[in-house]
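Anyone opening a protein record will find just a pair of labelled lines. With that in mind, the following record should read easily:
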Amino acid sequence: MAPDEVPDWFWAALEATRPRLSALESWLESRPREVLEAFALAFEAAADALADFSDGVRVDGFGWSEDDTEDLCLWIVGQGRGFWESVLAGERSLEEAAQLYLGRVPPSAGQVVPWDEEVTNPEHRGYQSPGTIVHGVYRTRFSEVLDERPASG
């Protein structure tokens, strides 16, 4: 999925529920399997569009690991379309976004809003971010592990 193919409904869902993770959890719980699969795919595609995680990002002169870089990119997506697009377009560098992610610089006028970590279903503890909650919801609803790249068919 190319960056311009990340669906509008995906961004609308994030914006409508942010910063309440329990609201996103509820939204996901009310959607069919195919929407959960598409949501997970869109989240991953949007994060993948920002960087090759294996290249890492340099912050304060240090190279971040692949996992840390992926976490940063997922966090950027969770901040919504406007913030994601600003990084994607190069208006804000990954290094600048990392400083916000780390809480080292104050967020600008509500553009960065931390998600709360409250979930209503105790089985979703451990999936307490906007990029992972879909995996917990999918697992509890369908008793299956959500593959991030579901096979079509």
Remarks:
- The first helix runs from residue 8 to 17.
- The helical segments are 8-17, 21-29, 33-48, 66-78, 81-88, 94-101, 133-142.
- DSSP finds seven helices and two strands in the chain.
